[in-house]
Specification:
Strand content: 15-25%
Number of strands: 12
Largest sheet: 5 strands, mixed
Number of helices: 11
Helix content: 40-55%
Radius of gyration: 20 Å
Order of helices and strands: EEEHEHEHEEEHHEEHHEHEHHH
Strand order of the largest sheet: 3-2-1-4-5
Number of domains: 2
CATH class of the largest domain: Alpha Beta
CATH architecture of the largest domain: 2-Layer Sandwich
Bound molecules: adenosine-5'-triphosphate, fe (ii) ion
Structural class: alpha/beta
Length: 328
């Protein structure tokens, strides 16, 4: 069975084609330019509407298949920006109807976890999901993937991008910020903010921007931002691991491509006698292949989304998702 999956929760529209062994036959993405400020949901939706069909054609060609070879259509049903979600849901419905194949609505956060589990070979991980819009620590407990900790305000990536935009870095700022941080020498005190298992980033952003105005070296600020924010992520990840007694950490989301974050997580897991798993970058960021793969395992468990149930869910919680494949 071959599944075509469409991702479109935020900046990125993606089309992935995956088979039942998780061979990624195509995985194409297109991201709206966010350099001029936060993304406007309707502009992003227009971007996705313009790009989703060309991306589909391109992905089918890249995979070397015909549309008739597609046995399942999956789409990101939430959480995310309403107009973006509705655009890709419409594309997915149209494709599944015209091909006469099942449609499956996929939870975006669960998709990050499932593709990571499959491609890295970990079985029962604690996921540190750090992306633009999301920052969550998720693990399997009591039959569901549960969110043990999350950001109380902005996602870590959005915070880094806001800082970068204000100080004149290109968008997205994460990679450039990582390069500058390597030149940092002084660790500047920033408001470390962990509340139980949750984290908050807006106070750190305000403080870092103020210090930048006061003339602190940009390299030192980038270094200090990384050290402070990543230490917070590592702390809540470790606390969740101890709580659920698990010894695998899976990384997901665009921010985990940061080598310093990987290093800090690695030190923590090694001290605990645990292991860290990092999927390839193209599968860490928002992409269609993770949606396609999750659609396949859901469908294999007998799940499909009827047309009348295919409305999007902007606030689709990770722990709302039933996971029959985990119980099998
Ligand atoms: P989501 O809907 O999952 O929140 P998104 O489109 O906002 O998705 P991703 O595609 O997962 O997020 O990741 C993009 C984010 O990752 C951006 O905020 C970007 O700055 C950040 N990022 C990318 N590379 C790095 C890096 N090396 N260091 C830190 N942050 C990075
Ligand atoms: Fe994501």
């Amino acid at each position: 069975m071959i599944c075509l999956g469409i991702e479109g929760t935020a900046h990125t529209v993606g089309v992935g084609i995956v088979d039942q062994d998780c061979k990624v036959m195509a995985n194409l993405t297109k991201m709206i330019d966010g350099s001029k400020g936060g993304i406007h949901p309707r502009e992003a939706a227009n971007h996705h509407a313009e790009n989703v069909v060309p991306l589909m054609h391109e992905a089918v060609a890249k995979a070397g298949i015909a549309y008739d070879d597609i046995g399942l259509v999956a789409f990101s049903q939430g959480p995310g920006l309403g107009p973006c979600l509705r655009t890709v849901a419409t594309a997915a419905r149209a494709l599944s109807l015209s091909l006469g194949v099942d449609l499956v609505g996929v939870n975006h956060c669960v998709a990050h976890l499932e593709i990571g589990r499959k491609v890295t070979g970990c079985t029962d991980p604690t996921l540190l999901y750090a992306s633009g819009g999301n920052t969550q620590v998720i693990a399997y407990a009591g039959g569901r993937y549960r969110v043990f900790g999350e950001t109380l305000d902005v996602g870590i990536g959005n915070m880094l991008d806001k800082f970068g935009r204000s100080v004149g870095l290109p968008f997205p700022s994460g990679p450039q910020l990582e390069r500058l941080a390597r030149e940092g020498k002084e660790l500047i005190d920033l408001p470390y903010s962990v509340k139980g298992m949750d984290v908050a980033f807006s106070g750190i952003l305000t403080a870092a921007l103020q210090l930048h105005k006061q003339g602190k070296r940009l390299e030192d600020l980038c270094f200090s931002l990384q050290e402070t924010c990543f230490a917070m992520l590592v702390e809540v990840t470790e606390r969740a691991m101890a709580h659920v007694e698990k010894n695998e950490v899976l990384l997901g989301g665009g921010v985990v491509q940061n080598k310093r974050l990987q290093e800090m997580v690695r030190i923590m897991v090694e001290e605990r006698g645990a292991r860290m798993f990092v999927p390839p970058g193209s599968l860490c960021v928002d992409n269609g292949a993770m949606i396609a793969w999750t659609g396949l395992i859901m469908n294999k468990s007998g799940l499909k989304t009827r047309l009348e149930d295919s409305v999007v869910n902007q606030r689709f919680r990770t722990d709302e998702v039933d996971l029959p494949w985990m119980k099998a």
